[in-house]
What does this fold into?
Amino acid sequence: MIRFNVKIIFGVVSMFLLAGIDSFAGTKISQELTGQIISYDVCDDSEFPVANAFDNDINTYFRSCPPFGNWIGLDLEEKCVITKVAYCPRVDSDYRERLRLGVFEGANSPDFGDAVTLFVIPDLTERELTMQEISCTRAFRYVRFVFPYAQTDGKSSYMGELKFYGYAADGDDSQLPQITNLPTISIHTVDNQDITSKDEYIKGIVSVVYDNGTKFFTDSLKIKGRGNNSWTYPKKPYKMKLYHSAHFLDLPAKAKEWTLINSYGDKTLMRNILAFDFSRRLQMPYTSPSEAVDVVLNGDYKGCYELCDQVEVHNDRIETDEFDSTTVDTGYLIEIDAYAYLEEKKFSSQTYSIPVSIKYPDEDEITAEQESYIANHFEKMVKAVSSSNYTNPTTGFRKYIDIETFLRHFLVGEYSGNTDTYWSVKMTKKKGDDHFYIGPVWDFDLGFENDQRTYSITDKALQYNEWIALWNETSAAGGTKNMVKRILSDETMITRLKEIYSGYRDNHVISKEVLENVIDSCATLLSVSQDLNFKRWPIMNTLVHENPVIYGSYEGEVDNVRDYVADRIDWLDSKLEYVPSTTGRNISSEKNSVRIYSTGGVLYVMELPVASVVKVVDLYGRVRSQQQNITKLALPLERGVYVISISNSSGTNVYKYPVY
It folds into this structure.
């Protein structure tokens, strides 16, 4: 409950002009702001009252009780633009670390449901008053400091002095603060309820600041936990359901449901990003975006997350036919799923004993006849795989499995070294089509040399000379591994796999240089956020989940991934007998003679054939440009690696290109 503290602070706080502000030039005068003290009533503060934090004396202090949720602030009694905050820890001993990751917020609702994160204390404070400038044009009536979650049980935090500076104004949203260079997602639930369930939603409000503070989005939402093993960790994953469909963070899908992936055991915080990037490079029909973000929940800095699509049937996500309750021949999304036993709608195949959960149609819509139909159709597929004529192009497994998506999905798993590739496999079936289409790819926290059960993939790959999906050490749902082994025993499948791989290698879509550029771009992007994340979750020197090795630093973790990728491309080249094309195919020698280059932060695509459609996508899945009927493109972009798709009457070519 919010307590409006009615104690009067005796004495008059002097007002002063901040250096460099000229009131005669029409600039607003920034000054120390005063108002009614407000706080969250969680414990007795009679010995060290909240007033001590606002008495202009750093030698007195307020004591915050250890349980998270304690905060103090001001009702400014009118809307003000905040230009600075100042804070000081208890100074009679070293309590500096107890303010680290404390969160400053501004709001216009007294319950702070609409709060925007102004600043997060990134490191140890000084034992003196520390000033922090705030770049924010929005005006707030209520401001507060939320004490950080106690890293050590029973330890109180102390605030020696707390100040807010600014000026009265209506404000606007032209500039808002971000915690780091990443988008900041602030979520406030009703009555500050914690999220403790994967089944029950809690209502709240989400506010998002992105694009260097120039864009703002807010909406009501419902939020709950998600995941299986990932839900067991201290840093929780979440599923959000917005009140309105939206292109959240300008991502491709206009949708209500979104996920926040915690990546707790992935100390690079980039493994999903890298795998999804590889999937897009292989032109999988759909790959979720994966946008790195900072998350604050009820004033608690939760760390660096990945914002991803909810994996669902949707016009801008997984495509299949719309649900039709009058027929069994409708669209389906199913999942080979080791956790199928937890699902409401599920079945298990007789052949290979593969557990499967039904994801679409929804459990409250699907009919008994449709359940029976999709289970029987899956059984036809696995029987075709196990049959004596399984290689027959007409009556064998090709009748039921789309080979192109199967092989690309397989390649993503092999490149990433994902030990869980066949623990969970999503598949769609369309109306009037017997085929199951494989994908999208998902969940790579154990990939890229991050599983002690398979470590070291590089060494074992040389020893076994076998696909990692078929190793005894890797996981699979039921007998899925035996089914995959059977499919790959068809030599024509390996031939097609070689063709797919060599095509992308020859076009430089897959190369060590390009993949290392992606890794380096991610490391640069995440450099500030990862530092805060591992202060909130100090696990860098602890083995968590299936971590095989402690590398001791973020740089060491990234180096491990970089080394693995270089070695893995060498192994794939050898395994798939890749020989570079003798025609020396490259961007400038394609039959369309397209020229691609970058300079000064601008991507140039030149000499395009008539009626070309050019699509540029960043490594997080965001469409940065899509234009048609053009002959050239000049596109300003941030430093990074981009996928360029060029379509015309001659077909579609995909390129990967870095912008510096």
Summary: The longest strand covers residues 71-88. The two ends are 51 Å apart (CA to CA). The helical segments are 271-281, 368-386, 403-416, 457-464, 480-488, 491-506, 512-536, 554-575.
